[in-house]
Amino acid sequence: MNVADQTLKKGLSTNDKIKIIIILAVPAVIENFFQTMLGFADTFFVAQIGLDEVSAVGVTNAILAIYFAIFMAIGVGVNVLMANATGAGDYERASKVAQQGVILTTIVGGLTGMLTLIFAEPLLSLLGVEQQVLEIGVVYFRIVAVPSILMAYMFVMSSILRGVGDTKSPMKAVIIANIVNIILDYIFIFGFLFIPALGIVGAGLAGVIARLVGTFVLILYIKKNNQIMFQKNWWRFDKVYQKELLGLGAPAAGERLAMRIGQVVYFGFIVALGTSTFAAHQIAGNIETFSYMIAYGFAAAATIIVGKQVGAGNYEEAKSYAKLISILSAVFMVFMGVLLFILGEWIGGFFSEDPVVVSEISIALKIAALFQPFLAILLILTGAYQGARNTKYPMYLTTIVMWLIRTLFVYLLAIQMQLGIAGVWVAIGIDIVIRAVVMWYRMEKDKWIKSKKKMSFKDKVECQCHPKTKQPNMNECVNNY
């Protein structure tokens, strides 16, 4: 029995639950730390070249974030369905879900690569950047995103391993990829021995090679995992499984896309404040992501644990774990907030020597520090809702609050009230608090687990947990609702 399966034991004390949560969360936190380092290293090294290059990486990442939203959504579907299946003791179904996830990832990753190749310049132009930034950005964007299938594979293969409760292997793969990226960043950007200095092109190439290495490492770990049983005759597009994956993944993608598209819109407002302010915003965002690594790690644990509890029909235990993980994460994030508040300006000095940019970085991080506990609760509950097969509500909430609160308040505070970068980050904080409070309230009212819905007669008749089974298996169907 792996660590995640131990949560299904009856009569565990709070201390026992905390130990299990920590064991699952810590590898995911470390994984997120090194995943963050992939973007951090690029920004750090590119910042030594110039602000135009930093902005080019920033606008590229704004578009890539939309790609990531899609890839992560597929990963959510795979992770949740596998956790539900393993919670019900059905490892064959979990393996089929994993293989169908790889098939879907291959299709989507190939399409995003083609989209980048053809429409790189028009996509970046939507952000309204200056011409010199656009020219640099198009080159970088094509290098990193034409082979975006590698990004997709890393997201989904990590989700496959987490779906069976393995958070250590994705951590190891990301660490290896990160080491490769940092070494190659330095060599390719600045040159070394016979290798010429390639600048921002070198940063892009380093990232691609690092993701290629990470993908192969993940494949090796999947092959070694005896709970994942891939079979040749399952490598066929299966409409039933794909419908389940899309049923969970599409709302998760919608939630992330609503967030990312909203970001593209208010990025246009920030760009209007000037290149230095936009660069400061990007740098501050990269620094703040180090606090995200803790919350995302605990969110991964929440998805796994809640998914297994829901798969086993233990709804009250699912709620108990969701609340406990939220509180634990919020405590850790308070500590991260203190660090951001105190050290923000000092850290910003590593990225830029421009006193205006450094000052704006400091302002942004001080404001961000105040909202860290709410950010923790929001991210953990999003993961918990997903584990409970409820991906639609986070999508609805994010869409409404993102567009009616965050984007509107960025415009009002930063542009109309001329608060600049302070207005941007206050608006972001207001958005975070509102969503965290609403999601906690719905959980308290038991309006968050989709499995509690009663199936209609039609659902019962049509439910097929195994695509090849002609007669419905009601026990397993109920576990998957």
From TrEMBL:
Gene name tied to this protein: mdtK
Name listed for the protein in its UniProt record: Probable multidrug resistance protein NorM
Species for this entry: Oceanobacillus oncorhynchi
GO biological process, alphabetically ordered: monoatomic ion transport
Molecular function terms from GO: antiporter activity; xenobiotic transmembrane transporter activity
Keywords for the protein's UniProt record, in alphabetical order: Antiport, Cell membrane, Ion transport, Membrane, Transmembrane, Transmembrane helix, Transport
InterPro entries per UniProt: MATE_fam (IPR002528), MATE_MdtK (IPR050222), MdtK-like (IPR048279)
Pfam families in the cross-refs: MatE
GO CC, alphabetical: plasma membrane
Protein family per UniProt: Belongs to the multi antimicrobial extrusion (MATE) (TC 2.A.66.1) family.
Membrane topology designation: Multi-pass membrane protein
Subcellular location: Cell membrane
Domain of life of the native organism: Bacteria
Record's keyword annotation contains Membrane: yes
Function: Multidrug efflux pump.
PANTHER family assigned: FMN_FAD EXPORTER YEEO-RELATED, MULTIDRUG RESISTANCE PROTEIN NORM-RELATED
Transmembrane intervals: 20-41, 61-81, 102-120, 140-161, 173-195, 201-222, 264-284, 290-312, 324-343, 363-381, 393-414, 420-441
